[in-house]
Amino acid sequence: MRHFLHDFDLSAAEQSQILDLALKMKATPDEFRQTLAGKVLGMIFMKSSTRTRVSFEAGMIQLGGSAIFLSSRDIQIGRGEPISDTGEVLSRYLDVIMFRAFAHADVQALAAASSVPVINGLDDYLHPCQALADLLTIKERKGEVAGKQLVYVGDGNNVANSLYFAGALAGLNVRVVAPEGYLPETKVLEEASAAASSGACMEATSDLAGIEGADIVYSDVWASMGQEEEAKQRLKDFEGYQVDKALFGRAKNDAIFMHCLPAHRGEEVSAEVIDGPASVIFDQAENRMHAQKALMAFLLG
Asked: d(Cα 184, Cα 199) in Å, to the nearest integer?
């Protein structure tokens, strides 16, 4: 029985296997209609969601299974029931659990008490399902992932962390460009660098020249959920780091633009970039479902 709490819960070979399966599921969905027939996915949400909820629920249904939405307001976890008790009980009803949480420790605690696979649907440290979908999108658009250069312009947050870790497994070069004070933690960079395959390079800089040579330019909101009170200060601190036409133009001529959504046009990215011909954000969003379908099929054997 396997959990997927961290990008490193997969080996490089397993990650590649899941991406290949996702491409097959996307190309020939009818072949997989009964892959998880009779299986039930439980989805626990401590944070609101559009893409995570719909992609998991639709994906499970497309594989012949069913899904149950559980917000923190609907179950006892929202009234103080220990996470370990929740994990113990739900794993007796369900075949797989997806948990969208705040603290990474909560995801770990749920998994420790669960006898079925637990998937990290997002926490404040990691967003591994997003990173899988991102790799799938790069594979589709660029033909291969290894050796490509991704430049992430924005806060060194959970998305950036998972891009480092997932990218390291895939041989993707990842460079984060952010103002001082918003760069990823040193330990994240060190862990990703130590695990990097195919000579992939993991970097972080505050110099906007870091976007040069990018095959993929990636951005995310400057203030994530739970950081609303910091929004005004962050807007000031990130001044000059918007991915506008001029900045994006410093990447390679055939570079693509990615964003995990939701986006704030006019803040972290200009409308002309995110809605322009190089943007692949909606393919990227769709690929959440395909990557997660392959992940669930992998975890459930």
From this structure: 20
Cβ neighbour number for residue 253 with a 10 Å cutoff: 6
Q: What is the pLDDT of residues 166-208, one digit of tens each?
A: 999 999 999 999 999 999 999 999 999 999 988 999 999 999 9
Q: Out of 6, 95, 108, 260, which one is annotated catalytic?
A: 260
Model pTM score: 0.97
Q: Could you tell me which of 156, 149, 158 has the C-alpha nearest to residue 52? A: 158
* From 15, 62, 108, 130, the catalytic residue: 130
CB 230 within 8 A of CB 256: no
C-alpha span between 188 and 277 (Å, rounded): 33
In the residue annotation, 260 being an active-site residue is answered as yes
Q: How many Cβ atoms from other residues are within 10 Å of residue 300's Cβ?
A: 18
Alpha carbon distance 168, 146 (integer Å) = 9
